Amino acid sequence: MSESSILVTGAAGFIGFHVARQLLSEGRRVVGLDSVNDYYDPALKEARLARLAGEPNFTFVKANLADRAGLLALMAEHKFPVVIHLAAQAGVRYSIDNPHAYADANLEGFLNILEGCRHNSCKHLLYASSSSVYGANKKKPFSVSDRVDNPISLYAATKKANELMAHSYSHLYRLPTTGLRFFTVYGPWGRPDMAIFLFTKAIIDKQPIKLFNHGDMRRDFTYVDDVVGVIGRLIDHVPAGGTDEAPARIYNVGNHKPEHLLHVVEVLEKELGLEAVKTMLPMQPGDVPETFADVDDLMRDVGFKPDTSIEDGIRQFVAWYRGHYGNLGASR
């Protein structure tokens, strides 16, 4: 598969950027697709792309997933043997006020990806799902064998729909698909709407940080390098299926260690040498108090074992943040 280009959607995004960079470092050819929308600061997305642009094996295509004709033409031209689909409209809270953005990108866009894979001999589609599909699941840790029939946000519902859509294409057309339920990914070049990025900026700017559920939240924070490592191992781990089984798999991608949000804030305060101003707020609609990934399947199938502590991960994030932004505070 290494001689043909791999399609990475969401290449200007957080995880997509890291995946594309790793593939390029391995000598693979990558076509990166992204709409570079303004859900968060496009300048950060452009800065990520600038890091990829100098690579001779990288080609960037600016396109929208909902552009059916354009996407299908691109996939027909390249006939990608592997598609790593990481583009999506992200965010639980944003989905409450902007539901149509999720239908366009996460439903219609994903259908276009599936159709492009189906008609162009794709050998493996890996796609981003989310830990949000578990909703208010009370069983811990969350296992891929758990029922996920009660999403509590539209974002979660679209991700569960993606899993069902992928399975149907695996069953009908024998398209091998692997779904990745990501658990709170963080690290250098991260998303500004995610907790660790938000907290870091606010602490430096001496602004209050918002702690929902009065800070009594636990998240299975997963360092981005671990996520990239998982994807790298899964590319050639193609689901085989069987006579009565679709070639489809779903994995949790998490650190298997929930961290209390107040501990995360303490680690950030220590790393930044600054004290956070905390604003305690009630639980927000669509949020859950805890996430906790069972990663036994990954460990069994591809030997994945998360090994980045929250302390090491935050240290590396803060080092990147200071290098990228400097201590510019509110003037940024």
Q: What would you say this structure looks like, in words?
A:
The protein has two domains: 6-185 and 222-253, Rossmann fold, CATH 3.40.50; 195-219 and 255-291 and 307-331, UDP-galactose 4-epimerase, domain 1. The chain is built from eleven helices and 13 strands. The protein has helices at 14-25, 42-53, 68-78, 92-97, 99-119, 154-173, 195-204, 224-234, 261-272, 296-302, 310-325; strands at residues 6-9, 30-34, 58-62, 82-85, 124-130, 177-182, 185-186, 208-211, 218-219, 222-223, 248-253, 259-260, 277-280. The strands form four sheets. It has a seven-stranded parallel β-sheet with strand order 3-2-1-4-5-6-11, with helices on both faces. Strands 7-10 form a two-stranded parallel ribbon. A two-stranded parallel sheet has the order 8-13. The longest helix is centred in the N-terminal third of the chain and has 21 residues, at 99-119.
Alpha plus pi helix count: 11
What would the CATH topology of the largest domain be? Answer: Rossmann fold
CATH architectural group of the largest domain: 3-Layer(aba) Sandwich
Radius of gyration: 19 Å
What's the total number of strands?
13
Name the shape in a single word.
globular
CATH homologous superfamily identity of the largest domain? NAD(P)-binding Rossmann-like Domain
Helix content: 40-55%
In spatial order, strands of the major sheet run: 3-2-1-4-5-6-11
Main β sheet profile: 7 strands, parallel
**N-to-C span:** 43 Å
What are the secondary-structure elements, in order, as H or E? EHEHEHEHHEHEEHEEEHEEHEHH
Name the poorly predicted regions.
none
Class of the largest domain in CATH? Alpha Beta
